[in-house]
């Protein structure tokens, strides 16, 4: 007997089959996507787990091996991966941290652009903008300005002017503006670097930076290399223990070498600045280096008056402003504080919707600056 299939059942079964096939396809596709995602994530995890590679410089090639220089200056004899071809001394390479084997050659621009890291300008500050400090100005004119403007004179007299000076004294007394004013008076390029930045930012590169900075100064001469916070670079070191200290030491040595090296560089002058002359390594102020020490202290009464006049030159003062009385209240101010006081007085006027500055604006401003000073002091004490 022939079995009769029910067409309805057949259709239902076809539908079920169809649905299964569609589902199977969908699941296969999903499975594929998930597998790909897993593979991708696994490779990401692997990448993240891999230790960082170190950027080193090839110092020498010895057969199938090489001598490399690590960023802290140490040298190692290492293997080269067979995938790395055509290595030459001077190339930059990536090396494994553990065994220092060379994994890959990279193209790092060898000459890093020093101009991106220093502040270079032609300052517009004139001597007239410096209040008080007459003796300091005279001395700087003698040892920096005159040799830059009239080098022949020194040849005729047969003396060699100092290569550089050291300005030292408390914060905000005008050291930076003095340096800028002499750069302006001699139309020199002013190249500014900060000692603490030089030793912190350019780990492993400090000495190279110093060399590049002096090369730049020679190219842009006449120029003034201004090193703020020179104590960060040139502090006395009792023992050079950690690699960080050795690094600072190397940078400092390079600085001394540059100072000693430029005999024919009459038109590059170095001005170092510090609030901490007491901790300086005496090597930096030896004859032939920064051997003119110029103290820039807190201003005298006349100095404060001059600085006040300089910073109120463009302000409209009320006739009732009694300068004598104000000066009595500012006797321990630094130049920077006098300037801050004038700015604050301007703000008090603005708050009262005036453009003319009254005596009371200055009085309030003095109180405000003094309060800030007190706050800064106690703040500093809190942190030792
Ligand atoms: N003698 C001064 N005459 C005129 N303005 C001054 C004088 N001293 C300080 N000032 C004002 O204070 C600001 C800060 O001064 P400056 O940067 O020269 O101080 P500094 O001695 O370099 O301080 P630091 O040691 O903190 O670097 C200057 O921009 C200037 O406006
Ligand atoms: Mg300064």
Protein described:
The chain has 4 domains: 50 residues; 53 residues, OB fold (Dihydrolipoamide Acetyltransferase, E2P) (Beta Barrel); 181 residues, P-loop containing nucleotide triphosphate hydrolases (Rossmann fold, 3-Layer(aba) Sandwich); 82 residues, Helicase, Ruva Protein, domain 3. Helix 7 links the parallel strand 9 and strand 10. The chain contains 11 helices and 13 strands. The model has no long low-confidence stretch (mean pLDDT 89). The chain is an alpha/beta fold. The structure holds adenosine-5'-triphosphate and magnesium ion. The site of magnesium ion has 4 residues, from helix 4.
Q: How many beta strands in the DSSP annotation?
A: 13
Q: What general form does the structure show?
A: flat
Proportion of helical residues: 40-55%
- Give the full name of the CATH homologous superfamily of the largest domain: P-loop containing nucleotide triphosphate hydrolases
Average pLDDT figure: 89
The name CATH uses for the topology of the largest domain is Rossmann fold
Query: What class do helices, strands and sheet pairing give?
Result: alpha/beta
> How would a crystallographer describe the biggest sheet?
6 strands, mixed
| Poorly predicted ranges | none
Termini separation comes to: 108 Å
Beta content comes to 15-25%
Give the C-level CATH assignment of the largest domain. Alpha Beta
- Gross CATH architecture of the largest domain: 3-Layer(aba) Sandwich
- Structurally, the number of domains stands at 4
So how many helices?
11
């Amino acid at each position: 007997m022939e079995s009769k299939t029910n067409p309805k059942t057949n259709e239902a079964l076809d539908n079920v089959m169809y649905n299964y096939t569609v589902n199977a396809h969908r699941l296969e596709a999903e499975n594929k996507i998930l597998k790909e995602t897993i593979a991708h994530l696994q490779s990401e995890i692997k990448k993240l787990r891999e230790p960082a590679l170190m950027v080193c410089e090839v110092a020498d090639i010895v057969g199938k091996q090489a001598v490399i220089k690590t960023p802290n200056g140490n040298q190692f004899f290492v293997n080269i991966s067979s995938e790395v071809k055509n290595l030459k001394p001077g190339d930059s390479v990536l090396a494994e941290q553990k065994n220092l084997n060379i994994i890959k050659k990279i193209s790092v621009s060898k000459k890093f652009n020093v101009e991106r890291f220093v502040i270079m300008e032609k300052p517009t500050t004139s001597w007239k903008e410096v209040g008080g400090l007459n003796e300091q100005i005279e001395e700087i004119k003698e040892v920096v300005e005159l040799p830059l403007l009239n080098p022949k004179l020194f040849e005729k007299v047969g003396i060699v002017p100092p290569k550089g000076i050291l300005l030292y004294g408390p914060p905000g007394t005008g050291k930076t503006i003095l340096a800028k004013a002499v750069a302006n008076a001699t139309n020199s390029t002013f190249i500014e670097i900060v000692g603490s930045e030089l030793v912190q930012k350019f780990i492993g590169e400090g000495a190279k930076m110093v060399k590049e900075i002096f090369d730049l100064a020679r190219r842009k001469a006449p120029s003034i290399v201004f090193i703020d916070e020179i104590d960060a670079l040139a502090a006395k070191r009792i023992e050079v223990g950690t690699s960080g200290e050795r690094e600072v030491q190397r940078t400092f040595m390079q600085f001394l070498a540059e100072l000693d090296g430029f005999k024919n560089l009459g038109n590059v002058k170095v001005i170092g600045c510090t609030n901490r002359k007491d901790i300086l390594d005496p090597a930096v102020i030896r004859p032939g280096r920064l051997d003119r020490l110029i103290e820039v202290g807190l201003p005298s009464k006349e100095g404060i008056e001059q600085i006040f006049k300089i910073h109120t030159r463009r302000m409209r003062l009320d006739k009732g402003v009694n300068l004598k009385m104000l000066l009595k209240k500012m006797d321990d101010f630094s130049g920077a504080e006098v300037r801050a006081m004038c700015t604050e007085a301007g703000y008090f006027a603005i708050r009262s919707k005036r453009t003319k500055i009254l005596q009371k604006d200055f009085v309030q401003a003095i109180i405000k600056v003094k309060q800030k000073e007190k706050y800064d002091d106690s703040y500093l004490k809190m942190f030792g």
